[in-house]
Amino acid sequence: xxxxxxxxxxxxxxxxxxxxxxxxxxxxxxxxxxxxxxxxxxxxxxxxxxxxxxxxxxxxxxxxxxxxxxxxxxxxxxxxxxxxxxxxxxxxxxxxxxxxxxxxxxxxxxxxxxxxxxxxxxxxxxxxxxxxxxxxxxxxxxxxxxxxxxxxxxxxxxxxxxxxxxxxxxxxxxxxxxxxxxxxxxxxxxxxxxxxxxxxxxxxxxxxxxxxxxxxxxxxxxxxxxxxxxxxxxxxxxxxxxxxxxxxxxxxxxxxxxxxxxxxxxxxxxxxxxxxxxxxxxxxxxxxxxxxxxxxxxxxxxxxxxxxxxxxxxxxxxxxxxxxxxxxxxxxxxxxxxxxxxxxxxxxxxxxxxxxxxxxxxxxxxxxxxxxxxxxxxxxxxxxxxxxxxxxxxxxxxxxxxxxxxxxxxxxxxxxxxxxxxxxxxxxxxxxxxxxxxxxxxxxxx
Length: 446
Prior knowledge:
This protein is an alpha/beta fold. The chain has 17 helices and 20 strands. It folds into three domains: 4-91, Rossmann fold; 95-304, Mur-like, catalytic domain (UDP-N-acetylmuramoyl-L-alanine:D-glutamate ligase, 3-Layer(aba) Sandwich); 313-444, Protein-Tyrosine Phosphatase, Chain A, CATH 3.90.190.20.
């Protein structure tokens, strides 16, 4: 009898998992409580996968041998509670992909901030070095779909805490933990500890031949690292100390050492700027060197990398005012990093759906660098309360177009208008990409 495999959620990860499970001979059924988007529906039909939308048929779901739940579905969901009570095993899409990856190697990258940039840069280095590789997970296509339709020798995967929550045997050859700051606490019973534990799961199954890359300057990582006994090889990266293996930056030079031959290069040659990107580049450099990639290839890739859309993306310079799109900054820490890299007076566009934000982190950066704040959201009360007395001017707007026009009015030649919202986008936009695109369109229409 084929394994009865039920998938909750029919977006990228759910449909990818369905295709892989079907190809592996599972009896697959996909259930989505909402409306399934047309392209995903077409894929399900193309592969002959049964599905339902607008409901969860309890009798079908609770008869499953195993369930994969999409990362967007929280534990407090009623259907999930019933599944847990019935004792049916629940896995995540990355667990399924791992099950069928064969001899391929995995570089898995997680962290509260910098995941997408570090993953994209690591992939760019692997590609530059000529490896047969794919960019998967939160940033590329679904990991499971890649394994099913176009398997590669190396997978560079961006992994969220939600995906790590339901792993069992998932074991990356190289695990990267960039940093841990308060984010998504609404999904972790507002307990920071739960979220921290989730992040460390990335290395829990690793063995002595695997590598665990982490930031020795991140206080939360270092505090909790002592509580875990990992078997993998530790490779720290730092700006404050000089580990004998891993990476560090000293006197404006990055040193990467995992084997016999160290790589040394000037941070002035990095394609992506800002202190946070120096951390991201160290992490990617160490990950690449564990794959045996030659140092000249790492150097070439680090100097030619194009930064990601919606992440500190230069949009335009209009009458001497620079516009930067950092719509991917969906938490306070990301915005802190963005402000840290500003060297000119800044008009900051903030706001959206608050995930339990603590804006006090931004006090110093705002006082030092921000001349005006433009709030862009349905409810801006919390931003006013936290930052109203830290800037000379604060205005409210309710669309990207209005926010851009107000910001341009408040800026003078030599200023920067920075969209770095520190919040989720769902009050006014479909997602952070939509928010970034509307911002860019509004800038072009000035």
